[in-house]
Amino acid sequence: MAKGDIATPPGTGYIGCLTPDQKVLLKQMWAQILQLTEAGIIEPSKDLPSSDPAAVGRISLKDLGLDKEHLRPALWNNILGDHPDSLLLRFLRARKWNVTNGLNMILKAFKWRIEDDIEEVKAKNEDELSAKYRGFKLQLEMGKSYFHGTDKMGRPVVYINVRLHKPADQDQKALEKFTIYVMETGRLMIQPPVETACLVFDMTGFGLSNMDYNFVKFLVQCFEAYYPESLGILIVHKAPLVFWGVWKVIEPWLDPVVASKIRFTRSDKELLEIIDPNHLPAKYDGGKDNFTYKYVSPVPGENECMNDAEMKDKLTEEWKSILWKFEAVTQEWIQSGKTEGGRSEAEIEQDRTQLASELRVAYFKLDPYIRARTLYHRSETPVLQRDGTSTWTYSN
User: Which segments constitute the CRAL-TRIO domain (predicted)?
Assistant: First the structure.
């Protein structure tokens, strides 16, 4: 572990279960982000030794290729309906509570989201994305990857049928956009207090013609740099002998934290240790859910409200008014205990919790006006509900 890094004690590091030291570091990171939104630069603190994980070196948005006008939208467009602290905590945990490293990491992720136009994937439907990125919709139609149900930890499960992947079937950018579509849609399915997802890489029928090293590198980068701490477990299921030569190439690319979450299963029954049989599709031995994946194309008029500029503006302003309050109360929280008088930290934290709940409600009122409906909104039994909850239907 590098100098200044701190391990996360089991059962800590999340909303509602922060140690006193973790809370200090979270406040420090909020303080630096809010300072950057106002000034665009942070100078090193002379009051903290460089070995202190709360010490932040010089950080300039300009040096990173960002500007303060885009920083706040990048922050809040990434938070979505989550508690705002959860995003910062993901990056702090990923960088072992080193504030400088966590801050640099989150800023680079923001830059990627801006440059790669992640909002485009949310704002356009599958037909529009496929018209721009060859093969985008084909991946949904064939069922290359799909979500279904939750595992025993309450994590949404995404199944990836690796045998269906042929590198030539879609442009590389279409594959990347499809991956982002899956990641951004999956975020809506992760329900608090759960913060991670379960991936099942079904290797049945895998051959070397399915191997795509460029895609693997992109996926690894997503989990490590852009969506840290979002992977709960990655199951490599029924890998054939030919895969192990490929694995020798891939394994050195993995961050130790990501690598530690990979599990290899040889039989369908091993999946039952992770996924309840009532939730596991019946195509797997022991699974009792008579589920068959079916793609439903966009329905004419399903995104009509995105054209209602007046209502979109109204709901946007309501959401922004709450986020401004959250930022103001967070500034108060950062300063709590440093001066005499004022409200107690507990009172301020109660306000932050309430505002975070109001932000979630306001965001999901706004969501259909800024996000195109997905397969999981329009399926026969919709998974994603308008209030931000997920409802899974099983056929046992």
Answer: 147-292
Domain that holds residue 153: 130-271
Question: Residue 235: beta bridge partners?
Answer: 200, 263
Which string of b and e fits 16-44 if b means at least 16 CB within 10 Å?
Answer: eebeeebebbbbbbbbbbbbbbeebebee
Q: Which residues contact 325 (CB under 8 A, 6 or more apart)?
A: 355
Task: Decide if 171 is inside a domain.
Answer: yes
Model pTM greater than 0.90? yes
Output b/e per residue, 318-337; b: 16+ Cβ within 10 A.
ebeebbebbbebbebbbebe
Model pLDDT for residues 227-279, shown as the tens digit of each residue? 999 999 999 999 999 999 999 999 999 999 899 999 999 999 999 999 999 99
User: What one-letter code names the amino acid at 361?
Assistant: V
The pairing of beta strand 156-161 with beta strand 145-150: antiparallel
Please provide the distance, in angstroms rounded to a whole number, between the alpha carbons at the two ends of the chain.
47
Domains contained in the chain, number: 3
Residue with the bigger pLDDT between 103 and 339: it is 103
Q: What phi, psi does 231 have (nearest 5°)?
A: -95, 120
* The token pair that represents 234 in the structure block: 């990655």
Give the per-residue pLDDT at 78. 94
Beta-ladder partners of 262: 234
Question: What would the pLDDT profile of 12-36 be if each residue is shown by its tens digit?
Answer: 999 999 999 999 999 999 999 999 9
Token duo for residue 174: 């279409």
Span 145-179, pLDDT tens digits: 999 999 999 999 999 999 999 999 999 999 999 99
Q: State the residue for tokens 């299921």.
A: 237
Last residue of a domain, one of 83, 115, 147: 115
Q: 391 lies in a domain?
A: no
- Kindly write down the DSSP assignment for every residue of 8-28, as one continuous string: --TT-SBTTB--HHHHHHHHH
The Cα 373–Cα 185 span in angstroms is 10
Q: Residues 165, 214: one domain? A: yes
- For residue 139, the SS3 value is helix
Same domain, 47 and 104: yes
